[in-house]
Design a protein that fits this description.
Layout: H1 6-12, E1 14-23, E2 26-33, E3 36-37, E4 42-46, E5 51-58, H2 70-83, E6 88-93, E7 98-103, H3 108-115, E8 127-133, E9 136-144, E10 151-156, E11 159-160, H4 166-185, H5 196-199, E12 203-210, H6 227-247, H7 249-278, E13 304-309, H8 311-320, E14 326-331, H9 343-348, H10 350-359, E15 376-380, H11 385-401, H12 403-407, E16 411-413, E17 419-422, E18 427-430, H13 433-445, E19 448-451, E20 463-464, H14 465-487, H15 492-496, E21 509-513, E22 516-520, H16 523-537, H17 547-550, E23 560-564, H18 567-580, E24 601-605, E25 608-612, H19 618-627, E26 631-634, H20 643-649
Parallel strand pairs: 10-12, 13-14, 13-15, 15-16
Antiparallel strand pairs: 1-2, 1-5, 2-3, 2-4, 6-7, 8-9, 9-12, 10-11, 17-18, 17-26, 19-20, 19-24, 21-22, 21-23, 24-25
Helix pairs in contact: 4-6, 4-7, 6-7, 8-20, 13-19, 14-18
């Protein structure tokens, strides 16, 4: 309902839509086709319920894809549950038989805890207050962490105002004023006094407003424009926070000290920028780093700068580039994390200084895209995990210090191959491990058949063609999930004993309560169990980070440790597919054999037969068959590729 016409738009863009409304003891129903009613509203029965059910099918003639994305819907529904404390939202996806139930008694306090789950909190309790002024309701929850960035999420009438507005500006103004007043009163300022940005470093906050007559800027409702809300928020934040700081001096001083540290870092960063300017006017591009292999052309729109991981790769790239338009800047050593490091430390980094000099637009508030020396800045790192990490660190730097480059679409990522494949007829390159596995699987499936030696599977006949491909695709989708499960120390044979014989599903939640171990198939079962336990002890259960901590010998409530096995979702989907083909979970497990029996499973390809102990051995066997006649080379890094290979595949 982003524009206030949600159900109308859904109806208009649906092949068909059916609405059922329960109110005043009756059930009303109406059906539509592509927005047109098939008849009047009908009263079809009686009920004690109140509510609306909308069922619709997106129109395939309008949308390129009509598939709903589970994670997108889940995120939004969880967000709504956080914003409306005490409301229970049940979400179920019949396609994959997966769902969730969201219920948050403490609302946005739990939202902030959720946002900070991977960060170290500066103070244990989430600061929370709510109230109403002149019909405008407000709710604020906030907590500081050891991070260097601000994460303030604002909502008006459940709508995410991603561009902020008067409610956010009022909150920020009062926060700065109140914290500065406290710091001054406590004589905490010596050499430097924090400003607003300093006090928001490491702040996570959720602001939720209830505004009867909201005035949004633009159609997408991303910014609130009501002038009166600014004053309401300033007064509310000032009144509550002043009292809170007085009553919680330890937390208050920790927050102000963090602001002082941020101010000191800001001042150090300013000095670092001044030093950079003095080095041959580096920020304006007057001086260029010595290791830059620049291009000949000065036509900015045609020029490209490659940031290349490692000196040896830089040499290969220099040999393979088009000197007219392509420049090479080799980067050596570890790239600093611009997201987690203080700004002065980032700007003192030698590789960062080289990039600033070469690109020429300046940094931070001084950026000027008109001074850029290249139209494309291309990050070129190895195709492995380390290369991915370095690429992420470089993207963090651009996002924090040269955001205009990112926003204007000047930052690119090169995609060097991970494999070179040579066969009798040709040489070609493969980008990723997944693509290589896919190619080997496709080649191996050619003329392959699988004999399950089981009359219950495929009528006792060997599996081949489309059925064989479906079996392999199912096993491929389960492959990484099974490995992830075993990495947790959970043996598949042992876990298979926990399978629900009715649904054919494995449990997805592993829970320790003190010494006692429990398994649950879904969140609803787990929540029901927790509710009973909390009722038994008369309050919330203490939570532990590890199962070892959960074993408490103290005469207190036993500690709780919950592990959600996310990979089980993929495994359960695969088990359902396998069941439709006649295989159960035991087919994935090797059986005890004396060695004189017939092979359990057999893969045949041409005149070659391969005996298999279980279904998990089928994919490696097919890939091995697919690799015959091929010479596969895995590049450990860009430096292993010669200039010609780099030119043909990447540059």
């Amino acid at each position: 309902g982003l524009h206030g016409v949600g159900v109308t738009v859904v109806n208009f863009l649906s092949e068909w839509c059916e609405v059922e409304v329960c109110r005043d003891g009756h059930v009303y129903q109406q059906e539509y086709e592509r927005g047109v009613p098939l008849g009047p509203v009908q009263r079809v029965g009686t009920t004690t319920k109140i509510g609306t059910k909308t069922t619709f099918k997106p129109d395939g003639t309008v949308f390129q894809t009509t598939k709903f994305v589970f994670d997108t819907l889940r995120k939004r529904l969880q967000e709504l549950a956080f914003l409306n404390s005490g409301v229970r939202i049940k979400f179920f996806d019949d396609r994959i038989k997966e769902g969730d139930e969201f219920y948050y008694e403490r609302g946005i306090v739990e939202f902030v805890e959720h946002l900070n789950r991977a960060s170290d909190a500066l103070h244990n309790d989430v600061i929370y207050f709510q109230g109403e002024t002149d019909g405008v309701g407000y709710e604020v929850a906030m907590q500081y962490t050891g991070e260097f960035t601000e994460n303030v999420q604002s909502y008006v009438n459940n709508i995410n105002t991603i561009e902020g507005g008067t409610h956010v500006s009022g909150f920020r103004a009062a926060l700065t004023r109140t914290l500065n007043a406290y710091g001054t009163k406590e004589n905490m300022y010596k050499d430097v006094k924090p400003v607003g940005d300093d006090f928001r470093e490491g702040l996570t906050a959720v602001i939720s407003m209830r505004v009867p007559h909201p005035q949004f800027e633009g159609q997408t409702k991303t910014k609130l424009g009501n002038g009166e809300v600014d004053g309401i928020m300033q007064t509310a934040v000032n009144d509550f926070l002043t009292k809170y700081l007085e009553e919680n001096p330890r937390t208050a001083k920790a927050i102000v000290r963090k602001g002082i540290l941020a101010a000191e870092a800001r001042e150090a960063a300013r000095k670092a920028k001044d030093i950079l300017r003095k080095r041959k006017d580096a920020l304006s591009g007057g001086g260029l780093p010595g290791k830059l292999r620049d291009c000949i052309s000065r036509e900015v729109e045609k020029c490209e700068l490659y940031l290349v991981e490692g000196d040896s790769a830089g040499g290969s790239a220099e040999g393979g580039r088009l000197r007219e338009y392509q420049a090479i800047l080799p980067l050596r050593g570890k790239i600093i994390n611009a997201y987690k490091s203080r700004e002065d430390k980032v700007l003192a980094n030698e590789e960062v200084q080289s990039m600033i000099q070469a690109i020429g637009i300046g940094i931070g508030a001084e950026q000027d895209l008109g001074r850029r020396r290249y139209n494309k800045i291309i990050i070129m790192t190895d195709a492995d995990v380390d290369g991915s990490h370095i690429r992420t660190l470089l993207l963090c730097f651009f996002y924090r210090q040269m955001y205009q480059l990112v926003a204007a679409g000047h930052v690119y990522v090169a995609q060097p191959p991970l494999f070179r494949v040579r066969s009798k007829k040709e040489t070609y390159y493969v980008q990723s491990e997944e693509e290589m596995k896919e190619q080997l699987l496709s080649r191996g499936l050619s003329d392959a058949e699988f004999d399950p030696n089981d009359g219950a599977v495929n009528g006792g006949q060997p599996v081949s063609g489309e059925k064989m491909e479906r079996l392999c695709r199912t096993l491929s989708a389960m492959e990484d999930a099974l490995i992830a499960l075993e990495r947790r120390g959970i043996n598949l044979r042992t876990h298979a004993e926990r399978l629900d014989p009715v649904t054919g599903r494995l449990p997805a939640y592993h829970v320790f309560l003190g010494r006692d171990e429990h398994w649950f198939f879904n969140r609803s079962e787990l929540d029901e169990f927790l509710a009973k336990q909390e009722e038994a002890v008369g309050g919330e259960l203490p939570v532990s980070d590890t199962p070892d901590d959960a074993d408490s010998s103290e005469k207190l409530a036993p500690k709780l440790h919950i592990t959600e096995l996310h990979e089980v979702r993929s495994i359960n989907m695969g088990l359902k597919e396998l069941a439709e083909m006649g295989f159960d979970i035991q087919s994935l497990l090797p059986q005890e054999r004396t060695g004189i029996e017939e092979p359990r499973y057999v893969l045949r390809r041409g005149e070659t037969e391969t005996a298999l102990e279980d279904l998990r051995g089928l994919l490696p066997a097919i890939r091995n068959a697919g690799e015959k006649g091929m010479q596969v080379t895995r590049f450990k890094g860009l430096g292993e590729m010669n200039a010609e290979e780099l030119r043909d595949t990447t540059l």
